[in-house]
Design a protein that fits this description.
single chain, alpha/beta, 6-stranded mixed β-sheet, 14 helices
Length: 437
Amino acid sequence: MTTLQGPLTTVKKYSHTENAFLPKTVTVPLSQEKNCVCRCLVKPGDFINEGDIIARPSAVEGFKGVIHSPIPGKVLDIISTYCPNGNLENAVRIRLQGSFSYLGKQISKKDWTDFSSSALISKISEYGIINTFLTYEPLSLGDQLKNQLKKKNRKLIIRLYDEDKMRISDSLYTKFFLEEIIVGAKITAKALEADNVIFAVDDGLDKSIIEKISAVENSQILQINANKYPSGFKRELRIYFNKMFKKTSGISISENDLFVDSCTMFEVYKGIVNGIPSISKYIHVSGPCLKTEAFLNIKLGFSIKDIVAQMGGFVKQPALIVINGLICGYTIGSLDIPVTKYVKSIEFLTEFRTTDYHTYSCVNCGNCRVICPVKISPDILYTHMTKRRNISENFINSSLLCTECGLCNTVCPSRLPLCQTISVLNEQLKEKQNEKQ
């Protein structure tokens, strides 16, 4: 494991959240979940309300989420746009016009306690709530809940800090919205019909917060040194929990249990209690290129360019724009890219805060093997994929152990995309396994 500067000190600097300006136009991509492209339900010239459904998956998709309009207005066009994950997707372009359904309105809280599990799952799906436990693998929470109900001994694991230690978004959610997150956890636990609820927290978290979390029925607290990396992925949470609790409680968790984060639980609260679909996100905007930093409530479809304008513009031109953290995130090359449901943070870096990101030939240093927490050989798997070098089937299958923590990328002097390449290999292996079944 690698020790990095913990997030709690940085989190303490933030005393409040802020609302972003209203955009004149938004661009809403029709793909906001992994492997799920929605069918557009509107056309140019249509007038829509805030929260109206503008796209949904085909009926075959079942409980996968829908996409709502983040603002009231007129549909200008259906265009192609690049998304934060680098994919080119169709998108709905909307111009602000008319009155709001939720913004500025008095929202009455709904009593969710009488809803059945199936009713809650349907609502979570209809509100378009996705699970951002892994930002590079955003999945429909409703679809995950539906699939989890097929299992026995269901467990809900809620991580209240970030898996990427270069990001503090989930920690900020925990600081500002703990009460809402706890209610969101109770709702999700009921939808899941969970036997156990496990909160994974930074061991430096205030005791008063831990006491509030402990009040949740059938809950257990897993305290982890979040300064260690990796410490927030499924593998680490499973190992820590089973080591600490399995012998004394007889409870263990597996990678097939349901893992969620602070952000997702807040979205569940906002949807089920307030009746507001997923149309905005709190995003941590930071970096030395900006005049200031903020935890902003931003409408989906808001462009990065508009966010920069709200922050007062650049004091220095960025050499790199990073979405969702330096370790697990993406770099983007355009300010016109819109905010999507899986965006948690945006950081603008100067050339002094970046490294050489050109790729070179492997120098066989072995750094990636030494640092890998699951002891695979990323360099050999990378060579197999890029140069078609033959290796044994057992060696190839070892890639499935990868947790996509990205440590191999951080120590590679040649700047090779080791983690991303192994992810592609794993997708191929999983497809082959599905075909055999």
